[in-house]
Amino acid sequence: MSHQVPEPKFFACSDSRDLAEKIAKSYGTDLGNVHISRYSDGEFQPSFEESVRGARIFLIGSTHPSTENLMEMLLMLDAAKRASARHITAVMPYFGWARQDRKDKPRVPIAAKLIAKMLETAGATRIITMDLHADQIQGFFEKPVDHLFASTLFLPYLKNLNLDNLMIASPDMGGSKRAYAYSKALECDVVICYKQRAKANVISHMELIGEVEGKNVVLVDDMVDTAGTLTKAADLMMERGALSVRAITTHGLLSGDAYEKIEKSQLLELIVTDSIPVRKQSDKVKVVSCCHLFADVMHRVHHNTSIASKFLM
Description:
The protein has helices at 17-27, 68-82, 111-122, 151-161, 176-186, 228-239, 258-264, 291-302; strands at residues 9-12, 34-38, 44-48, 56-60, 87-92, 126-130, 145-148, 166-170, 189-199, 202-209, 216-224, 244-252, 269-273, 285-288.
């Protein structure tokens, strides 16, 4: 007699509920019921309103600021562990605090490692995430990490544009590996921006390594926060004779006056995923949903089939 694999249960953290609903729908199921109780001082308590004993559960939530998003994920993991869930997968389309992945000066934390330990201590038995700020963050975990690439979403988008004289650009030296992977898939050249920072989120100087004259340039990056780097790079490239400049970034944090910078810049469009909720509508900001990618991977994980094809650039 064949053994039927019980269906997994899906639950969402509050700020990622829209994406979680899309993922569940793509999978062919509904979100489970989680109730959040709040105290008057701001403390909160999530509770699962259905049994999860012995089940595989997927907790969907990006950990972008505020810290409540991370805290909610940790509390839900702990609740699931104490409710005797068998497999507890933290599905984090955006893994926050990842920029602090090393000591870049004395007496600072390695936040990404700390978060990894907190997630495992809270009860996560597996992590599914997308476009980590640095690939080596996978090694901060002792549990399996499925690290997906948004290039599987963006490459078809770029190919459909049918751009002549296409050129891929990296907004900094650190993103050159990602840029080369895109250029290989699209069979085009690469240009790299060299930038010097006065302090975090403030660029003092930027220079181009390579020629962009007569090219349709696509900047690729893992995240856009203040949009300072991308807009400065786009303006510089247009000055150097580029025909057009677009940007593709997986995680659209878009904090502060990012939207105003994008509107005023030479960027033709900014393409992001919905790993983080888009707070504002803008004609220049296009959203490509990652829901089908995550639903597919979660299905493969649950049924123990290979997800190797989702790792390819």
